[in-house]
Amino acid sequence: MASSYRNLHTPTREELNDASPEQLRAYYATNASINPNLSVASIPPTVNGVRERTAAKVGRMAGMAIADYQGMLHGFLVGLVNAKRILEIGTFTGTSAIYFATALKRNGVKGGVDETGHKPVVCLDISEEFAEIARSNFREAGLEDYIEVIVGDARENLAKLSNITFDVAFLDADKVSYKYYYDTIIDKGLLNKSGLFIVDNTAFSSVTTYLDVPVPVAADAKPLDVKFDIDFNHRETTVALHEFNEYVRHDPRTEAVMLPLYTGVTLLRFIN
Ligand SMILES: C[S@@+](CC[C@H](N)C(=O)[O-])C[C@H]1O[C@@H](n2cnc3c(N)ncnc32)[C@H](O)[C@@H]1O
């Protein structure tokens, strides 16, 4: 790739296509080294054991869960926008949903199904196996009244959601669909005008980023043979994210900022 991150050149699709995996990774290298132990925020007890239980079930795929530091950031943002309802696309075994629900509860939001027919955190995930693990993690955390998981392709289930608006929408499922999720949420009015999008992995370059994360797999763990397409196309994902980034950069409806946290976290809000 001709250009580097330092001179802030935005690579073209052709440049991304020509780049080696090492160049992609170097280009998108982000600050993955923030140590939660140095953070002034604390990891809530509701996430205790979630990573260990996840790793015991899915092995190294457990690295797909958001990091604690990012979860603490999400909790902070939930407070900042005074969120009452959150939409999450891509739940896996529930780490990010637990951070969201913990923050809602701390902010005084009550659990249970409300007049919209939903609990405060509505999660969409395609995998019944992951959803089952997530639900048991929600029970362990005492947050089952706060979080529901709707299983199926989020592209279809998003289209079915109606008569509800959210204060935060978190995108963390298949990256190639981010633009579709973003546009559908806006077009259907699913995000309040003062709401916040949080979009994960926007500077992602390789799934090995997940797999490089050390996870606490117990020696006697026998991970499930979970049917999940971990072998998805890295380049297709990278290019789709690049196109998403360019799309939102030029979208007059919103303003965006990408935080150089882990594999990139983009925050977007509506411009009046
Ligand atoms: C990176 S993981 C989410 C991690 C999660 N937010 C956490 O903190 O643990 C991505 C998830 O997206 C789900 N997924 C992938 N494609 C999907 C689709 N088309 N619709 C719904 N979920 C999808 C996968 O099953 C997986 O659980």
TrEMBL record:
One GO-annotated biological process of the protein: methylation
Keyword Methyltransferase: yes
InterPro entries with a match to the protein in the record: Cation-dep_OMT, SAM-dependent_MTases_sf, SAM_O-MeTrfase
Residue stretches of biased makeup (Polar residues): 1-10
Keywords: Methyltransferase, S-adenosyl-L-methionine, Transferase
Database matches in Pfam families: Methyltransf_3
Stretch list, region Disordered: 1-20
Protein family according to the UniProt entry: Belongs to the class I-like SAM-binding methyltransferase superfamily. Cation-dependent O-methyltransferase family.
Protein name per Swiss-Prot or TrEMBL: S-adenosyl-L-methionine-dependent methyltransferase
